[in-house]
Specification:
The chain has 487 residues and is α/β, with parallel strands linked by helices. The protein contains 18 helices and 11 strands. Strands 1-2-3-5-4-6-7-10-11 form a 9-stranded mixed beta sheet, sandwiched between helices. α15 links the parallel β10 and β11. α7 packs antiparallel against α14, α9 crosses α10 and α9 packs across α11. The radius of gyration is 23 Å and the shape is globular.
Length: 487
């Protein structure tokens, strides 16, 4: 049993020094899939193949404390086909690709394509794990420091778990699989991984599908205020273009910034259907809450009513409760390993002096947006200092240029990977198709059915225009007007 084996090996390595003096040659080691038997149907299990990708901890000849075994899954297509499989690159960074296994099993894309899923080193079922249970323990205030000390005691050298090493794992995987080529699909940070992998092993890649594009060398922390400003202005402007929304909320932009100012002066308690949630919210908190909500396509139509409700002094989530986000527990899955996020992102994005952490010219951006977003970035920077992973010695300094056929998908309201980033990447991809979905937030394949139709068409012939009738039929969100909630 996988979990029992993982626990036993982990316990042994806590009790002894797990040194592998012999060099490890990358290989794929088959494994039974019994650890999924409690959550999958027999029909689903019949489509699943499991294995380990065994890779060295270091590739420069250094003595290693661990032999890395990365969880590798392959979902067989529903139809017999010779189509190139899809290799899924998860986001985060630090997400476990295996947490999306149920979604890929049910995806229309698995009708004609095998789906290959690899948990990057340090995440998910891969061994050793970088999971920090301290992050979810309420009695541990400084979980970063406590977990970092525990990692050091285990002999884990976090320099071996950074993005360049993750990319090398994927290169090893591509060379070991008996496949001419694969289609890469990367969502959010996974799109950055996909571009890096295409740069490292272009001969192995048939096509690129990038969903929520985050291209090198752009840095999220440098542009976080600008990206949020663009997403909020898009919401305010689109409400003004909608007759009903404009009539109900004619001064939505002013209302938003008034709420921020008033909450910063006097924080208020949040409620859910009138029930006290036991937490107070500041104006900066409200800004960051709106940033999070803009990610979700199903929530966007409710946001004008939500802002207007707060502007009226009703600090309740009630205007959002009809959205799919609040009607399901989809976002309750534990997919991201916080410590893997720090290990992979700190050396690349956050291990820079304060003067380089932000854009030098944020003209036109409301000072409160700059203050709120910098508060979060500075908090991450402090965590990075405590986590103490060396800055990368090599990185992609310029944009990835490629002739690999590429599909890029962006959401008009996305505050994390805006459409402008997709356009930046597209400028350097010679054979590209870039779609900006006018009603979407972050992640098209998860929230816009038309995105799946476009991607299926693209995969059938990546050099042919994949435009679908459904895309031309897309409109701005149909904003929901709450009764009695107008400004």
């Amino acid at each position: 049993m996988f979990l029992r084996r993982l626990l036993l090996v982990g316990l042994f390595c806590l009790m002894a020094t797990c040194v592998h003096s012999q060099p490890v040659s990358p290989r794929i080691k088959p494994e039974e899939c019994t650890w999924f038997s409690s959550i999958l149907t027999q029909a689903q299990l019949d489509r699943l193949e499991c294995a380990w990708l065994v890779v060295p901890e270091f590739r420069d000849g250094r003595e290693s404390s661990y032999k890395l075994e990365l969880a590798l899954l392959r979902i067989k297509s529903r139809q017999a086909t010779d189509s190139a499989p899809i290799l899924y690159l998860p986001g985060g960074p630090g997400e476990a690709a295996s947490s999306y296994l149920p979604d890929w099993l049910e995806s229309d894309l698995s009708q004609e394509h095998d789906i290959i899923i690899l948990d990057p080193r340090g995440t998910g079922f891969s061994y050793p794990s970088l999971i920090c249970p301290e992050a979810s323990q309420s009695n541990v205030v400084d979980w970063v420091r406590v977990c970092r000390e525990r990692m050091s005691a285990r002999g884990l050298d976090l320099a071996a778990y950074t993005i360049p090493e993750v990319i090398r794992d994927y290169v090893d995987l591509l060379s070991l699989m008996d496949l001419p080529q694969v289609n890469l699909y990367g969502s959010s940070y996974g799109s950055r991984l996909a571009l890096m992998l295409a740069d490292a092993a272009p001969e192995r890649i048939r096509s690129l599908a990038l969903d929520g594009v985050y291209p090198p060398p752009l840095r999220h922390t440098a542009e976080v205020a600008r990206n949020l400003d663009m997403a909020l202005n898009r919401l305010f402007d689109d409400c003004a273009r909608d007759v009903a929304c404009k009539e109900a909320y004619p001064k939505l932009r002013d209302s938003f910034y008034r709420v921020v100012s008033e909450l910063n002066a006097s924080p208020q308690g949040l409620t859910m259907l009138g029930q006290d949630m036991g937490m107070a919210i500041t104006g900066n908190d409200f800004i960051l809450m709106m940033s999070s909500l803009l990610h979700h396509t199903s929530v966007v139509p409710y946001l004008p009513a939500f802002v207007a409700s707060f502007a009226s002094g009703n600090f309740d989530f009630e205007p959002l409760l009809q959205s799919e986000l609040f009607a399901s527990d989809e976002d309750g899955r534990a997919s991201q390993t916080e410590s893997a996020f720090l290990t992979q992102r700190c050396p690349e994005d956050l291990a820079v002096p304060e003067a380089q952490r932000y854009l030098t010219n944020p003209d036109g951006i409301a000072p409160v947006l700059i203050a709120a977003t910098r508060e979060v970035v500075d908090a991450h920077y402090a965590e990075c200092q405590a986590w103490n992973v060396p800055a990368l010695t090599t990185r992609i300094e310029g944009p990835v240029t490629s002739g690999i056929p590429s599909l890029l998908m962006s959401g008009a309201y996305d505050p994390a990977t805006p459409a402008q980033w997709g356009s930046f990447a597209a400028e350097h991809l010679r054979n590209n198709w870039h779609f900006v979905f006018p009603n979407a937030g972050h992640g098209m394949l998860d929230s816009v059915p038309c995105a799946t139709e476009i991607m299926r068409t693209f995969l059938s012939n990546p050099l042919q225009d994949p435009s679908a009738d459904c895309f031309s039929a897309l409109r701005l969100p149909r904003f929901v007007i709450s009764p009695g909630k107008s400004e």
